[in-house]
């Protein structure tokens, strides 16, 4: 969602426009980030934080989801993280739809376009809905 797949030889390049949308969500939604994407593999939380900040992210990376078991769906990994951490609300920004019971928290992005400005309003609405439902 931050590294749209526009060309396989450039896979993993962070997009500044996508990061700007994430910055808006984090700022307006008073949120921190837990990295759930493949970007997390082989990187520490500090390395992820530095990588995102080096590309223009202004928020806080507080953690990354665990790799539960080989072949586990992303939603299972997120659910495992949530089971261990108390949060007042959350939104999932992802181009995967395998979220199981967490699907109502998903803002689904197009893998070729990534996080777009219209996603900001959806994400903030989910964050606000989550917080007021607690």
Write the layout of secondary structure elements.
Elements (H helix, E strand, L loop, with lengths): L15 H13 L4 E3 L9 H10 L6 E4 L9 H11 L7 E3 L11 E3 L8 H17 L1
Parallel strand pairs: 1-2, 3-4
Describe the structure concisely:
The chain has 134 residues and is of the alpha/beta class. The protein has four helices and four strands. The strands form two sheets. It has a two-stranded parallel sheet with strand order 1-2. Strands 3-4 form a two-stranded parallel sheet.
Q: Low-confidence parts lasting 5 or more residues at pLDDT below 50?
A: none
Order of helices and strands: HEHEHEEH
Level of helix content?
Answer: 25-40%
**Radius of gyration, Cα only, in angstroms?**
14 Å
Terminal CA distance reads: 27 Å
What topology, given as strand order, has the largest sheet? 1-2
% residues in beta strands: 5-15%
Structural category:
alpha/beta
Task: Please provide the count of β strands.
Answer: 4
The total of helices stands at 4
| Overall mean confidence score, pLDDT | 87
Shape: globular
* Major β-sheet profile: 2 strands, parallel
